[in-house]
Amino acid sequence: MDITIIAESNGNELHPVTSQLVGAASTLGGTVTVLCPGGIGEKEASEISGVAKVVSLKGDCFSSFDSGAWSHVMTPHCGDGIVMGSSSPSGRELAAQIASKMGVPVVQDLTGIDNGLMMTRSIYSGKAVETSNASGSCVITLRQNAFEAASLGGSAEVVTVDSSSEVSVAVKEAIAKAGERLDVSEADIIISGGRGMGDPANFSHLNEVADIIGAAVGASRAAVDSWDEIPHSMQVGQTGKTVNPSLYIAVGISGAIQHLAGMRSSKYIVAINKDPDAPIFGVADYGIVATWEEALPSLRDELANL
Ligand SMILES: Cc1cc2nc3c(=O)[nH]c(=O)nc-3n(C[C@H](O)[C@H](O)[C@H](O)COP(=O)(O)OP(=O)(O)OC[C@H]3O[C@@H](n4cnc5c(N)ncnc54)[C@H](O)[C@@H]3O)c2cc1C
Predict the structure, then answer these.
(1) In a domain, 131, yes or no
(2) Which residue of 8, 50, 99, 279 pairs with 26 in a disulfide if CB–CB is 3.0 to 4.6 A?
(3) Tens of pLDDT, residues 22-44
């Protein structure tokens, strides 16, 4: 079986989720080819154990994410078997475009897969788990941190393909909003604030902690709906973003089911809430019953001294 993995990049580097995709692919067996859009991370990808070949795709269209142009160039390099990508927003968009061009099904945001191609993912805001089976070619995306990463030690051949002439229209540049912080869907550590923060200005206390530990700052829907200063792009949950970081710190968030739907699969959850009966403590690995006014300055000082 051919398994084609779409490498995920983080700026100019290979995103660690790419090794997790290879790790998942190795449980299926088959020949693994990694496609590196824009050639980003081609060397690192070739060193992941279990990778047979790396196709480094060069071309103007890769200077900025554009699922239409990328899928046009990448689809001919996808093998007949399984095409696997990350369940990031761009990964899901690209997967859907490639699946439609290949005329095969797409199954998004998997949290489990076995070598009989039984695939699991959570549905209905995490209230149920769906198991499905694919009998032929398909495109799938895997949730970050849900699979063991493959180790290093490979030495796959790297083939470079220049696709500059194949795309007639492409996005040349995407300009991020001024002052925009790390996006929650990209981050391995997230600190989120809820209505309990009391005022949008108090998110500066979350920013301080985030800056020390390299975290993204997220928010509950109540915070986003209450305050114009907190944009929807920060919202975690059923109608916001689904995240799966190594560490999720929820501050002044009650833990409504719609919020949990977006973050309950995080590896470690820390909750800071003044109400000992807040439902967030039901999913937290560590809980601090205190106001954020008491807890955050101590947390900030302790982390700064590490
Ligand atoms: C269809 C639908 C979709 C939804 N989608 C989402 C979604 O995507 N994401 C989402 O988050 N919600 C979503 N919601 C809303 C959700 O039901 C909750 O209303 C929301 O999550 C509550 O946000 P919160 O926890 O910040 O606020 P609250 O529920 O008001 O909780 C505030 C918490 O802060 C604590 N607190 C107060 N002051 C302090 C203090 N000084 N220090 C520490 N703790 C303090 C309180 O004890 C309380 O637990 C959705 C709802 C619906 C109906």
Answers:
(1) yes
(2) 50
(3) 999 999 988 999 999 999 999 99
